[in-house]
Task: structure prediction
Amino acid sequence: MNIKKQLGAKIKRLRLKEGLTQEQFAEKINIATRTLSGIETGENFLTADTLEKILDVLDVTSSELFAIEHIKSQEDLVNEIIADVQNLKDKQKIETIYKIIKATINE
Result:
Protein backbone atom coordinates (compact mmCIF):
# COMPACT_ATOMS: atom_id res chain seq x y z
CA MET A 1 0.00 0.00 0.00
CA ASN A 2 1.47 3.39 -0.95
CA ILE A 3 1.67 6.46 1.27
CA LYS A 4 -1.31 8.21 -0.33
CA LYS A 5 -3.54 5.18 0.23
CA GLN A 6 -2.27 4.65 3.78
CA LEU A 7 -2.78 8.28 4.73
CA GLY A 8 -6.18 8.38 3.05
CA ALA A 9 -7.28 5.25 4.91
CA LYS A 10 -6.11 6.78 8.21
CA ILE A 11 -8.02 10.00 7.54
CA LYS A 12 -11.13 7.99 6.72
CA ARG A 13 -10.84 5.92 9.93
CA LEU A 14 -10.42 9.07 12.02
CA ARG A 15 -13.35 10.75 10.25
CA LEU A 16 -15.59 7.76 10.91
CA LYS A 17 -14.42 7.64 14.52
CA GLU A 18 -15.68 11.23 14.86
CA GLY A 19 -19.01 10.14 13.36
CA LEU A 20 -18.70 12.42 10.35
CA THR A 21 -19.94 11.67 6.84
CA GLN A 22 -17.75 12.62 3.91
CA GLU A 23 -20.09 15.52 3.21
CA GLN A 24 -19.91 16.84 6.77
CA PHE A 25 -16.15 16.48 6.99
CA ALA A 26 -15.56 18.03 3.57
CA GLU A 27 -17.65 21.02 4.59
CA LYS A 28 -15.70 21.43 7.85
CA ILE A 29 -12.36 21.42 6.03
CA ASN A 30 -13.71 23.50 3.14
CA ILE A 31 -13.10 21.11 0.24
CA ALA A 32 -15.40 19.34 -2.19
CA THR A 33 -16.73 15.93 -1.18
CA ARG A 34 -15.26 14.54 -4.39
CA THR A 35 -11.83 15.89 -3.41
CA LEU A 36 -12.11 14.28 0.03
CA SER A 37 -13.13 11.01 -1.57
CA GLY A 38 -10.01 11.15 -3.74
CA ILE A 39 -7.84 11.80 -0.69
CA GLU A 40 -9.39 8.95 1.29
CA THR A 41 -8.94 6.48 -1.57
CA GLY A 42 -5.37 7.58 -2.25
CA GLU A 43 -6.13 8.92 -5.72
CA ASN A 44 -5.29 12.48 -4.67
CA PHE A 45 -2.93 13.98 -2.13
CA LEU A 46 -3.87 16.81 0.17
CA THR A 47 -2.44 20.32 0.23
CA ALA A 48 -0.70 21.79 3.27
CA ASP A 49 -3.75 23.99 3.91
CA THR A 50 -6.08 20.99 3.80
CA LEU A 51 -3.72 19.07 6.07
CA GLU A 52 -3.86 21.84 8.68
CA LYS A 53 -7.66 21.85 8.56
CA ILE A 54 -7.83 18.05 8.87
CA LEU A 55 -5.54 18.10 11.91
CA ASP A 56 -7.66 20.81 13.50
CA VAL A 57 -11.06 19.21 12.83
CA LEU A 58 -9.93 15.72 13.84
CA ASP A 59 -7.97 17.13 16.80
CA VAL A 60 -4.86 15.08 16.06
CA THR A 61 -1.21 15.97 15.65
CA SER A 62 0.68 15.47 12.42
CA SER A 63 2.70 12.74 14.19
CA GLU A 64 -0.50 10.89 15.03
CA LEU A 65 -1.88 11.27 11.52
CA PHE A 66 1.30 10.13 9.80
CA ALA A 67 1.88 7.16 12.13
CA ILE A 68 0.82 4.68 9.45
CA GLU A 69 3.69 2.25 9.06
CA HIS A 70 1.87 -0.32 11.19
CA ILE A 71 -1.19 -0.38 8.92
CA LYS A 72 -1.58 -3.61 7.00
CA SER A 73 -4.40 -5.08 4.96
CA GLN A 74 -6.74 -7.57 6.60
CA GLU A 75 -5.36 -10.34 4.41
CA ASP A 76 -1.77 -9.49 5.42
CA LEU A 77 -2.72 -9.47 9.10
CA VAL A 78 -4.48 -12.85 8.89
CA ASN A 79 -1.56 -14.40 6.98
CA GLU A 80 0.94 -13.03 9.50
CA ILE A 81 -1.09 -14.37 12.44
CA ILE A 82 -1.38 -17.80 10.81
CA ALA A 83 2.35 -17.93 10.08
CA ASP A 84 3.23 -16.88 13.62
CA VAL A 85 0.94 -19.48 15.17
CA GLN A 86 2.20 -22.22 12.85
CA ASN A 87 5.76 -21.50 13.97
CA LEU A 88 4.92 -21.84 17.65
CA LYS A 89 6.06 -25.01 19.39
CA ASP A 90 4.69 -24.27 22.87
CA LYS A 91 1.24 -25.88 23.24
CA GLN A 92 0.33 -23.64 26.17
CA LYS A 93 0.96 -20.50 24.10
CA ILE A 94 -1.13 -21.92 21.25
CA GLU A 95 -3.98 -22.66 23.66
CA THR A 96 -3.76 -19.14 25.10
CA ILE A 97 -3.90 -17.61 21.63
CA TYR A 98 -6.86 -19.84 20.79
CA LYS A 99 -8.73 -18.68 23.92
CA ILE A 100 -8.01 -15.02 23.16
CA ILE A 101 -9.24 -15.36 19.58
CA LYS A 102 -12.37 -17.23 20.64
CA ALA A 103 -13.15 -14.68 23.37
CA THR A 104 -12.66 -11.80 20.91
CA ILE A 105 -14.82 -13.37 18.22
CA ASN A 106 -17.61 -14.18 20.66
CA GLU A 107 -17.82 -10.67 22.16
